[in-house]
Amino acid sequence: MGQAKKRAVTDGIGHKVLDEVRFLKNWIDKPLMTGAVAPSSPQLARLMASYVDPTRPGLVVELGPGTGVVTQALLERGIEPERIVSIEYNADFCSLLRQRYPGVHFIQGDAYRLPQAITGLVGAEPFPLAAVVSSLPLFTRPLPERTRLLDDAFHRMEPGAPFIQFSYALVSPVPHGATRFEIERSGWVVRNLPPARVWIYRRPA
Question: I want to staple 44 with a disulfide (CB 3.0 to 4.6 A). Which of 11, 40, 106, 183 is the partner?
């Protein structure tokens, strides 16, 4: 292995360890806001990104990017940086993300208040989004807040566009009957810590 490749591998491992430390610190400080003790695994991030159709026009909104594992997967999926709008509550994570992913629109704000968070960037009127990809810890919020978030997203997406959410739980973060949607779920990603699955919500035509 050449020196440049060795250095790249070493840097990659170093970034991974530092990101895990950042996540753990933020989880200790604010467990209900961070919701996880470690970043999502690349396997989980790639699975989430696989449900985004790069050919569907519109912005892709990412909720709770953390240290950017899912952001990276979206870019690898073929989503252009300027099409990604990412909302992160943590100021330190926001600063890190802007350094790592130039061209992506990072907004420091409350992702649970989606209309207010994106108004400054795209205007107040509803507009079609290609997808919403969420890493938020939904189970830490009351069901009405989860339902409102899904409805706010559906209001800005055409029928069939996906709201993509991962969870460690056996049941859907937003149950049937809370709002009108179709639901799909993936198998378990056992190489994530802890194992997780992906839930995909779509508003029918």
Answer: 40
